[in-house]
């Protein structure tokens, strides 16, 4: 079963589609730069304090991967300004990959949260407060769900813009006559009529040949008689 995705004409129902994508690109650019700066500060602080915990490892991974995101966002902004479908497609495919990873991460965190809540509830220690692990996991699930929904909406916007640009610069002509077939079915009576017609055509052809031979014979005799008269 094929799922038809909607074509969005405007961003947030009021802003022109391309301008909305340009604005989103600059927001993502600012967010990426701030993320790199924040995690770089975290790495620097952890290095000075000689505390290499989970946050330090996560910050190192983010700082290593964020430059790729930064380059993709810059290409996306250029693609929006220049109406370049190739750059927009690169951004779309990159974000599809990110969306898949985020969905898998959401499933993993949700599964771990449900397992942890079941274990804590079994021993009567299930409690939600701002400093508990369950609360942190639940907050992560809610945040990641919001990011996935926003990412999906942006992907729909980018897809609609690519489709719009593609329809504006391409024309398609379809020749349906090339694939058409003509089938003629003859009934039994019609087949007999066709055979009779063929026989009549053969008889007519034979008669024409006889008339032609007689005419040639007459012309030959006439020429012979004229030759005798001259002599």
TrEMBL record:
Using the UniProt annotation, give all residue ranges assigned to the region (Disordered).
193-212
Q: Which residues cross the membrane?
A: 56-78, 99-120, 132-158
Q: Which UniProt keywords apply?
A: Membrane, Transmembrane, Transmembrane helix
At the top level, the lineage of the source is Eukaryota
Its protein name is Uncharacterized protein
Biological source species: Chrysodeixis includens
